[in-house]
Design goal:
Elements (H helix, E strand, L loop, with lengths): L8 H23 L13 E5 L7 H7 L4 E6 L6 H11 L2 E3 L6 H12 L3 E4 L16 H10 L2 E8 L1 H4 L14 E8 L1 H6 L2 H12 L3 H8 L28 E3 L5 E4 L5 E4 L5 E3 L7 H17 L6 E9 L5 E11 L3 E4 L2 E4 L7 E3 L4 E6 L2 E6 L6 H11 L5
Helix pairs in contact: 1-2, 5-8, 10-11
């Protein structure tokens, strides 16, 4: 294990005890979460939580009093001084997005067998349309394999506090947060993997816009819709690609090709001529349809000024190339090298849409470009591989 010297569980338990009051304060001021009587388990427990924003582990820490080990992407521990001390003080279970998570699974099981609590976000990514993302069957297999209590935890409303296209937080409150269900080892053993997976998906599922239709809660969007084109780059009206921009830090998105304007209100809903879209799921359906139409016609995306890094141990980045990226049904092409989809794990988006991480062969890579919509390359991979993941 790289980085700081690893100590025994008692050391990390003491550190966590010092920081947990801080986590609770963060959860209160960021999300309006305050729990007077948190739950304390006297046994090892695997906590599965839905993923709505970067600090949602503080919601869980407010509700559950146990010392918790976090499962996190190793790009978090590579975030300068914050990442360095997060790694040193909390000894998280680190995984690399876009790679096999086998090493992380082994570490989770080891810590549970030592009597600890572990927090896992099985979606592995924050939703960019407000609906919970895909949970793989491997999560259900893990739940059966750990042979301990499994707790599901769901928070809703966090999508509007930190939409996936931004890497900063807006002002607002969660709609709700709390434990959904507790499953004993005996209960899990009696169920099939498919039954366990069904329970997990049902327990953790949220649809932010469906709830917001009823609540109409207001949020103060810190920079308006400024960065929304990191994820949404197809005009809802003319279907133009990369034709959208946001003026200043306002709430109006405009298409340079057809002049169509879309305004986002402080509840997160969209308003424009013809009411073509009202929510991110509406917009995404149009966008994915346009992407797939183009892919099917052999019209594949490309980008200038993309930087490619190789990712080493401890998320150490080595720049390999800066220049044009082209793509096809086979894969990505950069600097004369072809990165084939059939040799690739599913790409993952990082840092509010500015980075894309993937593994090809046995090497990990990261693409980076400011103000680009790299999400289209994730969708190209899924289209080319015939993925049914949503």
């Amino acid at each position: 294990m790289s980085g700081a010297k690893r100590r025994d569980d008692a050391y990390y338990r003491r550190i966590y005890t010092l920081f947990r009051p801080i986590f609770r304060v963060v959860a209160y001021f960021a999300y309006g979460v305050w729990v007077k009587h948190p739950v304390k388990y006297s046994e090892p427990v695997l906590i599965l939580a839905n993923h709505t924003n970067d600090l949602d582990f503080t919601d869980v820490a407010s509700h559950i009093a146990n010392h918790i080990y976090f499962v996190t992407s190793d790009h978090v521990t590579a975030m300068g001084l914050f990442g360095k001390y997060f790694d040193r003080w909390f000894n998280p279970i680190k995984v690399t997005k876009g790679t096999s998570k086998a090493g992380g699974v082994v570490d989770i099981m080891r810590r549970l067998r030592r009597g600890s609590a572990v927090l896992l976000f099985p979606e592995g990514r924050i939703s960019h349309n407000g609906r919970s993302t895909y949970i793989a069957p491997a999560t259900a297999k893990l739940c059966k394999a750990v042979r301990c209590r499994v707790v599901t935890f769901r928070a809703s409303g966090g999508f509007f506090i930190e939409p996936r296209w931004q890497n900063y937080m807006n002002r607002g409150r969660l709609f709700s947060a709390g434990i959904v269900h507790e499953y004993s080892a005996a209960e899990l053993a009696a169920m099939t993997v498919e039954e366990v997976l069904g329970h997990i998906r049902a327990d953790l599922y949220v649809d932010a816009y469906a709830e917001q239709e009823q609540r109409r809660a207001r949020f103060r969007f810190r920079h308006g819709a400024r960065d929304i084109t990191r994820y949404y780059d197809v005009c809802p009206k003319c279907r133009g690609l990369d034709t959208l921009s946001v003026e200043g830090e306002g709430m109006v998105i405009k298409c340079s090709a057809c002049g169509y304007e879309l305004r986002m209100d402080d509840c997160g809903f969209f308003h424009g001529e013809g009411d073509i879209v009202r929510s991110c799921p509406d917009w995404e359906a149009i966008q994915l349809g346009e992407y797939r139409k183009r892919f099917g016609a052999g019209d594949f995306p490309g980008e200038d000024g993309v930087t490619l890094y190789s990712i080493g141990e401890g998320f150490e980045k080595t720049e390999l190339f800066t220049g044009p990226l082209s793509s096809s049904a086979e894969g990505f092409k950069m600097a004369g090298e072809l990165y084939l989809f059939h040799e690739m794990t599913p790409p993952e988006i990082l840092s509010g849409g500015r980075r894309l991480e993937f593994t090809c062969g046995k090497r990990s890579y990261m693409l980076e470009k400011e103000n680009a919509c790299l999400n289209k390359y994730v969708e190209l991979y899924k289209w080319a591989r015939g993925s049914v993941e949503e």
